[in-house]
Specification:
30% helix; binds FE2/S2 (inorganic) cluster; single chain; five-stranded mixed beta sheet; alpha+beta
């Protein structure tokens, strides 16, 4: 199949790749641009571990055509830390032991970031709802919810969008 050029801003840097018209964004990120942060889990929109932000909106990279991202801003878990400085949500995940095998963690962190950007002070119910599309087989979810609530309580100056 003939490849098409796709250009978008990935974690603040202009990136370009060639993709099949049917390629999803996850394929282009992982195989074309070596961004292995978003994981391939189910590949059919069920598990959430491929979650990314596209123009600030939480999206499943496995269900998003790469071509549809041309000209967009794409943020992945790979860009959450600022150099050695982890995002407060990442710090909170470590402090609350919110990751075990870690396979769901990219999607959980991304969903948490999306939530706290639009709602800096969520209730527990809102946190649970925000991560409802992300499946975790290890933690039982409680430490993840506690970590996100702790990140929300962190000083606003610490929290980057
Ligand atoms: S890999 Fe995209 S939702 Fe599971
Ligand atoms: S930590 Fe293993 S799937 Fe969530």
């Amino acid at each position: 199949m003939r490849k098409i050029p796709v250009q978008f801003r990935l974690n603040g840097s202009d990136r370009a790749a060639f993709a099949d018209p049917a390629d999803n964004l996850l394929t282009v990120l992982r195989r074309g641009l070596n961004d292995f942060g978003p994981k391939y889990g189910c590949g059919q929109g069920t598990c959430g571990t491929c979650s990314v932000l596209i123009d600030g909106e939480l999206r499943l990279a496995c269900l998003t055509l790469a071509a549809a991202c041309d000209g967009a801003s794409v943020e992945t878990v790979s860009g959450m830390a600022n150099g050695p400085d982890l995002h407060p949500v990442q710090v909170a995940f470590m402090e609350h032991f919110a990751a075990q095998c870690g396979f769901c963690t990219p999607g959980m962190l991304t969903a948490a970031k999306a939530l706290l950007t639009r709602n800096p002070n969520p209730t527990r119910e809102e946190v649970v709802e925000a991560i409802a599309g992300n499946i975790c087989r290890c933690t039982g979810y409680a430490p993840i919810v506690e970590a996100i609530l702790a990140a929300a309580r962190a000083a606003p100056a610490q929290r980057r969008s």
